[in-house]
Amino acid sequence: MALGVSRAIITRMRFIVGFVLALLLIAGGVWIFAGTMSGPAIDIRQPAKVLGANGTLEVAIDAPQGALSGLEVAFEQQGKRTVVAALTGTDATLTQDGPDRIRVQRPLNRSSVPGLQSGPARIVVTAARPVVYGIRTIESSATRDVAVRLEPPRASVVSTHHYINLGGAEMVVYRVTPPDVASGVRVGDVEYRGFPASGAGALAGVKITDPALHVAFFALLHDQELNTPMHVFARDEAGNTARADFDHRVFPKPFRRSRIEVDDSFVGRVVPAILERTPDLKPDGDDIAKFLVINRDLRRQNAETIEKLASQTAAEALWTGPFQQLGNSKVESAFADHRTYFYKGREVDQQIHLGFDLAVTANVPIVAANRGRVAFADYLGIYGNCVILDHGLGVQTLYAHLSSFETAAGQTVEKGQTLGRSGMTGLAGGDHLHFTQLVQGRAVNPVEWWDAHWIEDRVLRKLRGL
Fold it and tell me: pTM above 0.85?
């Protein structure tokens, strides 16, 4: 009996030991498995690169069911560490942003970060979530280096005597610090980017080395009021701003009105050709209905394309002296003509003609009005075969309705170099050149740019005075 009892005890003890070992193995496996799981996903959304005087902290943390066992957002600068948000803090703004996301959003300024100063800083976010029924916690962290800018930029105007015609352009010279902030001229709700003046000095044969000096070409558009406010602006990445007013005089400019007769012959020729080259445009109705969509919607889309091309401008002047009008050309339509379209005796549309229509003979060589780089050479809706030259500093010229190209995008062309041949592609009623002078993608009166006296007074005089 004693031997049987001993064997039973030994068997039971082996079972218990085996069971405990199994539990330990399972627990170890679970522990190891938990170690392979990832911590909360952290996305520091704001600030991105720069923090201003009134910045915002925004952090998104993803975890299953949004369950977090710990969260801390710290701001580090010059050896000082400030906790600006925490899971247990009373000042943090934590919101549930979806089933698995927690969002932290709060102001980031001198109130939340005492002693905040301009210079480099770092944001450190640490978050943890429970796993294995809370037995273990997994942590993750993310950091972002930011530049703190608390002082706004400074701007002051250097040039004097600014005279602007309605529909015309001007240039202002100004000083901005720090020199790398975004700056330029704002006219109403339109902004014109400025450029370092060092890139304009060659126009007047002067060397400009002061990095704070900038120039900006700007315009009072044909459809803006004469009293439209205008000023120099400066804006850094942190949202800090500065402005400087400048003396200026504005002059009215009358624009012509014209009547355009649209007949079936014209519509039947231009509409199918344009739609064939513009497959994304699918207007309904008869040819006149399609023509109106082209004249309105496609015209607007083409204007947006032209405006986007302005961002490709060079930071230095590629041109010298006045621009040249197409030689021996007859002006068939001038800048900002107000056109009223009639079809079979009834008014069907109104548009503004933003350029000059210049005619010589059929298939005449079309030459560059000044030195520049070809920013665009392709088909462009109502303009047909079209070339756009970039002359630098936001100045560009457009040549439309060409029958053929003799240049390509990316090429540098000299003043007087042939770009292509005149034609009647796009919405052209006959063989001619549609020429547009552009400032930051906005059409201005080219007559000024053809005038050597205007170039001298509006541009060169101001540069020589630096």
Answer: no
